[in-house]
């Protein structure tokens, strides 16, 4: 889908800054959740953003999803993915899996057999909502190895294009909910002025270093690792720069998406539009119907090894 060309001539400012504190999820896993917590339940179309860290045997064993997409981007180590439809694969460092849960999937995400008990497997998982017309489509995957992710570099700025485009370089990912997802690394004293579609919601999540975002005069403009920055509306670009005295690079993701503007009803890993649809989803899952049929007799290898369920 083409990116809108409307411009305002104004830059996006940071309107809210959140520190992603650690919390436990799954089986012994630790995540830093910034979107999807009580201070920020939903940022249309984004449901959850987790920065996760798992060391075997911890992980995310068998669990369901319906009604949205999960985007898993590995920063270190590797994760083994299995699902009830028979899909299985490893997401390695720098690699990406864009999963459309659609009408329903049950899967597991665990450190692969190559990961020892001392290997830290770290990454980001973003949940992106789907519009009502896409919530019950068939599950599907887009998977890209690190070497195949589009990259570009200019004036001390290196960009990995997960979704969308940068400076004419485009990602291979097809997004049902129009989305941009860019992984920036800025060397000291470098800066960017990145276009953002005028009516999209957008945020920054800092992975490494320290930088300035939006406007140096704003109280929320500076941020270090594990901080989420919500960008305000009304502007068509983000300005960011690395002026760190430490000589270290600044790494962050910039994510934007077109708001869906529909009601959201959520019960854990199920995201629909009404409570009635959530009740129906729970019934489907418990009775292995309408998308969950193959989950009846399925158990992941990881769950079997851990003697779970």
UniProtKB/TrEMBL annotation:
**What domain of life is recorded for the organism?**
Eukaryota
InterPro entries in UniProt = Pirin (IPR012093), Pirin_C_dom (IPR008778), Pirin_N_dom (IPR003829), RmlC-like_jellyroll (IPR014710), RmlC_Cupin_sf (IPR011051)
Which keywords belong to this entry? Answer: Iron, Metal-binding
Residues where Fe cation binds = 63, 65, 107, 109
Q: Does the keyword Zinc-finger apply?
A: no
Q: What are the Pirin N-terminal domain coordinates in residue numbering? A: 31-128
Cofactor requirement: Fe cation
Give the cofactor binding note. Binds 1 Fe cation per subunit.
Which intervals hold domain Pirin C-terminal? 181-290
* Keyword Iron on entry: yes
The UniProt family comment states: Belongs to the pirin family.
Protein name from the UniProt record: Pirin-like protein
């Amino acid at each position: 889908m083409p990116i809108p060309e409307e411009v305002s001539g104004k830059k996006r400012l940071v309107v809210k800054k959140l520190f992603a504190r650690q919390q436990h999820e799954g089986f012994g896993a630790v995540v830093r959740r910034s979107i999807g917590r009580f201070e920020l339940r939903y940022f249309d179309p984004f449901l959850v953003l987790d920065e996760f860290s798992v060391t075997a045997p911890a992980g995310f064993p068998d669990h369901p999803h319906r009604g949205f997409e999960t985007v898993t981007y590995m920063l270190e180590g590797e994760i083994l993915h299995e699902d009830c439809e028979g899909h299985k694969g490893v997401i390695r460092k720098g690699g990406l899996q864009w999963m459309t849960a659609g009408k329903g999937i049950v899967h597991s995400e665990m450190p692969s057999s190559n990961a020892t008990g001392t290997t830290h497997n770290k990454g980001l998982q973003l949940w992106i909502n789907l519009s009502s017309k896409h919530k019950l489509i068939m599950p599907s995957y887009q998977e890209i190895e690190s070497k195949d992710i589009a990259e570009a570099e200019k004036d001390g700025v290196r960009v990995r294009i997960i979704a969308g485009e940068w400076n004419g370089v485009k990602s291979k990912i097809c997004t049902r909910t129009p989305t941009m997802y860019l992984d920036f690394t800025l060397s000291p004293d470098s800066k960017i002025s990145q276009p953002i579609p005028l009516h999209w919601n957008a945020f920054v999540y800092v992975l490494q270093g320290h930088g300035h975002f939006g406007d140096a005069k704003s109280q929320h403009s500076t941020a270090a690792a594990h901080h989420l920055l919500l960008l305000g509306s009304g502007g068509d670009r983000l300005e960011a720069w690395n002026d760190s005295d430490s000589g270290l690079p600044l790494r962050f993701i910039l994510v934007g998406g077109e708001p869906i503007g529909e009601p959201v009803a959520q019960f854990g890993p199920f995201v629909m539009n009404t409570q009635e649809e959530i009740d129906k989803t729970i019934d489907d899952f418990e009775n292995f119907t309408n998308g969950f049929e193959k989950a009846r007799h399925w158990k992941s290898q990881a769950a079997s090894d851990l003697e779970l369920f």
